[in-house]
Amino acid sequence: MIRQWLEQRRQKKEAVELVGGANIAISRMGALLEKHPGGYMDESWLPLAKPAMKTAFKIAIAAETNPERIEWLKAGWILLADFQPGIGNTPLSSPPMPSKPTPEFMASFGCYTDMTKTVAKEGERLLAEMQEFMTSRQISN
To answer: Considering the entire predicted model, what is its pTM?
Structure first.
C-alpha cells in the first residue's frame, strides 16, 4: 500500500515536471515570436527540435483545462511553421517597400515570398496534425 502510494506520488511529480517543461519550451518559443513579429526564424532558434516542440504542445494541450488557453496552444503549434531551416542568424521578414523597386529589393522580396510559400505549406501540415490530435483526444476544434 505504501509502495503504491509512493509510486503514484512519483508518477504525479514526473507528470507535473513534464508539463512544466513543455510550458517552458512553449513560452520560450512565444517570446521569440513576440520579439520578431511577422518574421521567419531559423528552426535552430527553437528551444527544442520541432518534433519535440510538437510533443510539448500535445502535453500542454492534454494537461490544459482552460479552453481559451487551449486555443492559444493550438495556434502556437501551427506557428512552428515560422521556424525554418537555413534562415540563419537574422530573422527573415518582408523588406520595406522602396519608392522605386530596385533589383536588390526584388531579389530580397522574392526570397521572402518563396519562404512564405514554404511556411504556408508547413502551416497546413501542422494544422492537419493538430486537428488530428485534437480529434483523437476528442477535444473540440
So the answer is: 0.81
